[in-house]
């Protein structure tokens, strides 16, 4: 085989069309944030009132102050919001499998695309599409958010980051948000999940690309010659 300075690189791909990452108009994003922030603020106040105070050095452990009425959050509000990649991933997997334990299925996913790696972003699209393919539930809406919106969501929750936030179905305080997002954001398109023919076999796709070969040879270090008259 002739050495051309290139080598083949192989990658597998599904044989179906992938869902594409949606776009969101800044006006719609701002309106959704306006409906979301009051709920997140209640949860943030609840976290502050229930968090343990650090004793520090030579500091007595004082009892926590009585929670204010604003921090008294009902359990259904806490259960309506899921924060974090792993927590939302587990719930979405349960919905995709049709587990009966998911009494409050996720209806909306707010995600900062730049805050998660590319493989996780691609897998998240397929997972949301799979969880939305069930005929007994409404399709899940994926709302991409900017870095500024993520910062505002994290500040409302009292957390440093909030790259992925899931909003569950069936809560009266998040019902206006759910209705608005469903009216303005289209669901992910994955017809092969909804209209698939399980009796038809589709082979896995293998993509081949040529990439440059990196040379491991080191260039010899030239030793400076001594000038005439120097020892």
Structural class: alpha+beta
| Amino-to-carboxy terminus distance | 51 Å
Give the CA-based shape: extended
- Supply the CATH architecture of one domain: 2-Layer Sandwich
Poorly predicted parts: 66-72
* Tally of DSSP helical segments: 7
- CATH top-level class of one domain: Alpha Beta
Number of strands: 6
How is the largest sheet built, in terms of strand order? 2-5-3-4
What is the mean pLDDT? 79
What Rg, in angstroms, do the CA atoms define?
A: 26 Å
InterPro entries: RNase_P_Pop3
GO cellular component, one term: ribonuclease MRP complex
GO molecular function: ribonuclease MRP activity; ribonuclease P activity
Pfam families: RNase_P_pop3 (PF08228)
Brief descriptors of the model:
single chain; 231 residues; alpha+beta; four-stranded mixed sheet; 7 helices
Describe it for me?
This protein is 36% helix and 15% strand. It is extended, with a radius of gyration of 26 Å. The longest helix has 25 residues, at 26-50. The two termini are 51 Å apart. It has 231 residues and is α+β, with helices and mostly antiparallel strands. The protein has a domain at 21-48 and 72-188: Ribosomal protein L30/S12 (60s Ribosomal Protein L30, Chain: A), CATH 3.30.1330.30. The protein has helices at 26-50, 75-80, 85-97, 118-132, 147-157, 175-184, 191-194, and strands at 6-13, 81-83, 106-111, 141-144, 164-168, 205-212. It is built from 7 helices and 6 strands, in the order E-H-H-E-H-E-H-E-H-E-H-H-E. The strands form 2 sheets. It has a 4-stranded mixed sheet, with helices on both faces. A two-stranded antiparallel ribbon has the order 1-6. Strand 3, helix 4 and strand 4 form a beta-alpha-beta unit. Helix 1 packs parallel to helix 5 (147-157), helix 1 packs antiparallel against helix 6 (175-184) and helix 3 packs parallel to helix 4 (118-132).
């Amino acid at each position: 085989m002739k050495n051309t300075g290139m080598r083949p690189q192989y990658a597998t791909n599904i044989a179906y069309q992938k869902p594409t990452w949606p776009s969101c108009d800044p006006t719609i994003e701002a309106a959704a944030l306006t409906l979301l922030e009051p709920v997140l603020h209640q949860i943030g106040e609840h976290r502050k009132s229930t968090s343990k105070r650090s004793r520090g050095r030579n500091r007595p452990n004082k009892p926590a102050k009585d929670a204010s009425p604003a921090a008294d959050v009902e359990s259904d509000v806490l259960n309506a919001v899921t924060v974090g990649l792993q927590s939302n991933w587990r719930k979405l997997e349960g919905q995709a499998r049709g587990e009966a334990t998911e009494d409050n299925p996720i209806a909306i996913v707010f995600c900062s695309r730049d805050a998660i790696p590319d493989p996780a972003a691609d897998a998240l699209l397929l997972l949301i599409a799979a969880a939305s393919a069930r005929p007994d539930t409404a399709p899940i809406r994926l709302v991409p958010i900017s870095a500024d919106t993520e910062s505002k969501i994290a500040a409302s929750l009292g957390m440093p980051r909030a790259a992925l936030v899931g909003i569950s179905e069936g809560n009266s305080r998040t019902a206006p948000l759910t209705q608005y997002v469903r009216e303005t954001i289209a669901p992910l398109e994955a017809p092969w999940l909804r209209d698939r023919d399980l009796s038809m076999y589709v082979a896995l796709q293998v993509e081949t690309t040529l990439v440059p070969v990196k040379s491991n040879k080191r260039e010899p270090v030239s030793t400076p010659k001594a000038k005439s008259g120097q020892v």
